[in-house]
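Interim report to the steering committee. The following record documents the input for Carboxylic ester hydrolase (526 residues).
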Amino acid sequence: MRPFPVLWSLATIAFALTNHASQEASKCTSFAPSAVLASYDASFLNTTHFPIGALNVSGILNHVSFCEIYANISYETNSSLIFAIWLPDTQYALRFMAVGNGGMAGAIDYSNMVTQLNSELGFAVAGGNAGHLASENNAGAGAPEVYLPYLHDEDQVRAWIHDAVSLFTPAAKAVVKHYYSHEAKHAYYDGCSTGGAQGFALAEFHPDLFDGIVAGCPGNWYSHLALSFLWSAQQTDTNATFLSQPVLDFITAEALRECDLIDGVADNLIENPLACPFDVSSLACNGSILTPNDNITCLISSHITAAKAINQGPVRSDDPTTSLYPGFSSGSETNWLLQEGTLASAFSIPILQNLVFNNLSYDAATFNWASDVDILDARAGTFIDETSNNLSSFWKRGSKMLVYQGWADPFNAAAWPIQHLEAVTRATIGDNATVVNNDFMKLFMIPGGGHCGASISAQYSNIPAEYDMVPALVNWVEKGHVPLEGIKSEAPSDGSARTRRLCAWPAVAKLKDGGEVDDWESYVCE
Ligand SMILES: *[C@@H]1O[C@H](CO)[C@@H](O)[C@H](O)[C@H]1NC(C)=O
Ligand SMILES: *[C@@H]1O[C@H](CO)[C@@H](O)[C@H](O)[C@H]1NC(C)=O
Ligand SMILES: *[C@@H]1O[C@H](CO)[C@@H](O)[C@H](O)[C@H]1NC(C)=O
Ligand SMILES: *[C@@H]1O[C@H](CO)[C@@H](O)[C@H](O)[C@H]1NC(C)=O
Ligand SMILES: *[C@@H]1O[C@H](CO)[C@@H](O)[C@H](O)[C@H]1NC(C)=O
Ligand SMILES: *[C@@H]1O[C@H](CO)[C@@H](O)[C@H](O)[C@H]1NC(C)=O
Ligand SMILES: *[C@@H]1O[C@H](CO)[C@@H](O)[C@H](O)[C@H]1NC(C)=O
Ligand SMILES: *[C@@H]1O[C@H](CO)[C@@H](O)[C@H](O)[C@H]1NC(C)=O
Ligand SMILES: *[C@@H]1O[C@H](CO)[C@@H](O)[C@H](O)[C@H]1NC(C)=O
Ligand SMILES: *[C@@H]1O[C@H](CO)[C@@H](O)[C@H](O)[C@H]1NC(C)=O
């Protein structure tokens, strides 16, 4: 019977842990970063120590205790960017991770910050608000006829996607170095959507800052991404052309019926939509049924015209052979509802009214798909696009980039990152380079994948919605391990245990003979 010594030793351990934790807390709260920040024109704002589990970002708790430092950096004449640096107490592994923003930004992406902090890779993590405040910009939600101050300030427009991450990164790296007395050996970036565009901006405009970049569902041709939203909205803005959710579900079900089995696996999924010959015209009612009901068995011609236009994507009115942005792929239809007005109202119309025409009464229905495209390119594209095909500075430095894109992403046409990867490969490495031997950028297409994770529609709720991109990037940067054997995806929104193998384009996952369909280990990339 030895209760006493056991209690005694537990108490000792508890005391030691408490003591250690309080040391970490006092190291944090007594840390004085003002001088180091000042050398980067940044101002110290405040410090807080978070014990394990003290932070809850939309349900994600911090699994490691950390020191939070807020700072403020002035840029250009009148603008300011707020950023946070999270310094883990114990697991710093000489790695720095910066995260990007979503949508119109204006707020720090704490959710991605806590995800990166919790990873076992030992990151010191930093994130900023992109140089403007959501609170001063309609809570970061664009809407028609709403004045968004940041879109009227050229410095803030430039900062938003092109420069925001680069503005805080040197100061944040310096703080990390001073806190641990060891600078990070490797610097990484992770962002999706607008954050994916910010990733391309880093590679293009700030190629020396990061060794590895994850750019998810990248909106890096931002001005034309906005055009694609407007295009889809205009194609479906009458009762005759609007595609209801049952109509969209019907089209996707028919595409799956035709193409699911192309890869030999019956999984309600098109592995590679480019290999799918599905044509929505084949669903024509041929005059027999004029009013679709809930049990749709065919499509009226105005629905077919609308669906084909969304498949095609926007083109110039003065030259219909000139594509302004790719269209949406077979199997993505079930997620298109957002394309039918919501995204135009949230992005295209605000960008046209505030940034391009500086006229809140501007009527987007009058957009001229020739002359106004040129105006948009000059007044918006110049400041918010990051589409250079020549990333040679980034490449020559030896930095690596992982791009991922959901095939059923309702925001970004999935063909865009493929098209861009091919152009970047040739312009950066050489005319004869191919995406297969590209040694600095790999693209992972996600069958059934949505925008930065789960698909909205129930159709694809079984698709794994988390992708192990960051560990793969770290392995590539630090060990030279090119992720050609694929990357694991997991955590579908339906809560099932399904995992899938994602492959570096143009490889696709192939089920091994007799393999378990829902286990990523059963697949190889071919
Ligand atoms: C620290 O500063 C940030 C940015 O201004 C602010 O959001 C936060 O509430 C501050 N935290 C404390 C503890 O003062
Ligand atoms: C974390 O926040 C979520 C809401 O975002 C809440 O449902 C959950 O109970 C919280 N968890 C804890 C441990 O406080
Ligand atoms: C950040 O700095 C700018 C310029 O120095 C200042 O105007 C602004 O109020 C500061 N913001 C915060 C949250 O301290
Ligand atoms: C900076 O702000 C001041 C005061 O609001 C204004 O007069 C000035 O024009 C601004 N400068 C720039 C470059 O935006
Ligand atoms: C569209 O349909 C709605 C109801 O379904 C109807 O109220 C409206 O008048 C119709 N609009 C046109 C232009 O036909
Ligand atoms: C309508 O006719 C076309 C051309 O004959 C055919 O391809 C299509 O499958 C038909 N549609 C339906 C729903 O049967
Ligand atoms: C639609 O299909 C359901 C189930 O197959 C059936 O119960 C219902 O009667 C059908 N409705 C119409 C209008 O055909
Ligand atoms: C703003 O747009 C409206 C609607 O297109 C137009 O009538 C008006 O003339 C425009 N205002 C200016 C100042 O251009
Ligand atoms: C790509 O950019 C680099 C400088 O960043 C330049 O030296 C090179 O000539 C460019 N390549 C092409 C094909 O334009
Ligand atoms: C590209 O390939 C073609 C045909 O094989 C060859 O003639 C050409 O020299 C190659 N160019 C470069 C830059 O290697």
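The radius of gyration is 25 Å. The committee is asked to note this result when reviewing the revised timeline.
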